[in-house]
Amino acid sequence: MTEKRTPNLLVEPNKFCPGCGHGIINRVLAEVLEESGLADYAVGSLAVGCSCLMMDTFGTDWVQAPHGRAAAVAVGLKRMRPDCCIFTYQGDGDSMAIGFSETLYAAIRNENITAILVNNGIFGMTGGQMAPTSLPGQRTTTSPKGRDAGTTGQPLNMVDQMKHLPIGYLARGSVASAKDINKLKKYIKAAIETQMNGGGYSMVEVLSFCPTNWKMSMEKSVAHVQNTVKNIFPVGEFVKNGERTDA
Amino acid sequence: MTQNHELCKGCGYCILQCPKDALSLSSTVNRKGYNVVDLDQEKCILCAICYTVCPDSVFERVEA
């Protein structure tokens, strides 16, 4: 029986709401960095939003990027320090709304960085406004009658934007069950390995929940991700070692 | 499994995922003001699924 201890990279208790998916993703990322022996060589490019609460609680070096520009900052870091493990940690509002261009162009140029995009379908820190990834019919503070796909378009699927590009690794995981979390750990590990082997751009999108702004109980939030969100955003590995897997 | 009640925020994700129903929300309140989760050591099989799903690092599996 192996020991399961909290990673040393989590230097303080996190500051997220009860039931937030960020806490789980933080721990998985910390485990991967420690198991890969990269804890001292990892530099994160931090987005704006709930993710910037990690600045004090997650023990790697951080650069606070301007809103949406985490991918661009990470590219600069990687070009200056190619020996370091450079990753971005962004929410969907940061990476897919204001930062859509930077996120996508880093992939188009096949920059050798790892992007972790946390997709919870809503703007969390600012109080639950509609995000590009909000589902059709989803009620948010800026779409009180439900998102109207006719005027605001369909949810943005970042994996579909990227899977045709010549990149190194692309996957989408979720935190909606213990099994999913174990798979997510494999995805993040593969993404970090791709970067350290010089395999080009790697991205892992994570379907997370926001019980606070969804105004749902934990039970309902988990069921919502499992039964509704996963149908619109399928999970799996889409690009592996530069080859499409057609998942 | 060991528990650090002071980190718990009472979200109940572990209660949903525990295969043996060894976890339940108690009436005990920690210093943050959250109701904490109670672990029934009798039912626990040390699978550490609670460690996997907990967002707040409440659980740890240590060598007995």
From TrEMBL, chain A:
Domain of life: Bacteria
Keywords for this protein: Oxidoreductase
Biased composition (Polar residues): 133-144
Domain Thiamine pyrophosphate enzyme TPP-binding as annotated: residue spans: 50-206
Coiled-coil stretches: none
Pfam family, one: TPP_enzyme_C
Matches recorded under InterPro entries: 2-oxoacid:Fd_oxidoreductase (IPR051457), THDP-binding (IPR029061), TPP_enzyme_TPP-bd (IPR011766)
Region Disordered: start-end pairs: 133-155
Full protein name: 2-oxoglutarate oxidoreductase
Taxonomic source organism: Oceanidesulfovibrio marinus
Automatic annotation (TrEMBL), chain B:
Classification via InterPro entries: 4Fe4S_Fe-S-bd, 4Fe4S_Fe_S_CS, Polyferredoxin-like_ET
Presence of the UniProt keyword Metal-binding in the record: yes
UniProtKB keywords: Iron, Iron-sulfur, Metal-binding
Residues in 4Fe-4S ferredoxin-type domain copies: 1-28, 35-64
Keyword Transmembrane found: no
Lineage: superkingdom: Bacteria
Pfam families according to UniProt: Fer4_7
Alphabetized GO MF terms: iron-sulfur cluster binding; metal ion binding
Protein name according to UniProt: 4Fe-4S dicluster domain-containing protein
Top-level taxonomy: Bacteria, Pseudomonadati, Thermodesulfobacteriota, Desulfovibrionia, Desulfovibrionales
